[in-house]
Amino acid sequence: MFTLGIDVAKDMLDAALFDGAKYKTKTFRNTHAGIQGLLEWVNHHHAGHCAAGLEATGSYSEAVACTLHDAGHPVSVINPAQIAAFVRAELGRSKTDTLDAKRIARFTALHSPPQWSPPPQAVRVLQALVRRLDSLLDLQQQENNRLHTAHPSVQDSIRAVIDALQVQIDDLRQRIRDHVDQDPELRQRRDLLESIPGIAERTSAVLLSHVHILDRCRSVKQWVAYAGLDCAIVQSGSSVQRTGHISKRGPAALRAALYMPAVVAMRHNPVLSVFAGRLRTAGKPGRVTICAVMRKLMHIVYGVLRSRKPFSSTPVAAM
Fold first, then answer.
1. Are 159 and 144 in contact (CB under 8 A)?
2. Per the domain annotation, does 144 fall within a domain?
3. For the chain, what percent of residues have pLDDT higher than 90?
4. Residue 207 lies in a domain
């Protein structure tokens, strides 16, 4: 059986078909036409429904992964850290896009990584809206920062850009509300999330754009690990004794979205305020306390969405 490895970049797709002994390689544009060309190339080599592997590269890999899945190919979206470790294990020294595609194909053939399935269409739309909103908010913050130090001759121009961005931001926020309202499952989950003190409209939208992953998690530990909030310990013998830290191996945007809700929850969430108080009493630094509250907040999100019951300050519901 063939395996297909794809090295995904912003503009290009480097593909490698592996039959267990030899490779066939070709490069395609990362566009709709290029992805269709990739499918035709695979069919031309009579590869059938080959197992395809590609690294998780956010929005750059979404289109090709969805197209391959819809065409009937088993798709695995692989953590780049796994491929990097695989290359180190093979003592790989050189690095090119074609070599990376071959390594991904070989990794997929040897390790049969779990199959990936795309999120529901409603979630795909929400993800696009949330990403666009985050981009505009970042742009607006950049312009606000420039305004503070800008020469008076350009301040009117900067204010005009800020105002224009605000119009687009308000429109996107309304589109997100309308989109969630029109989908019964998303609407129910949003109401459950916003019953948790500390989680408001913006955070609930970000969580909803990731919540399809929760349906695949068999435990709250996997949900926390997905967000990169699990603890990573590095110890070996007597010489390596590093302080524990969060792994940060999940979506950075999700962790960023949880930061301010955790700060608010430390004051207003009856469960998390007590939890944070215990950590402060134990002498934990502020950053450690906030990370622990973010992790506990993910526990509560998991419990609320799994039970389909609004937040309650009782221990059973909170955990």
1. no
2. yes
3. 76
4. no
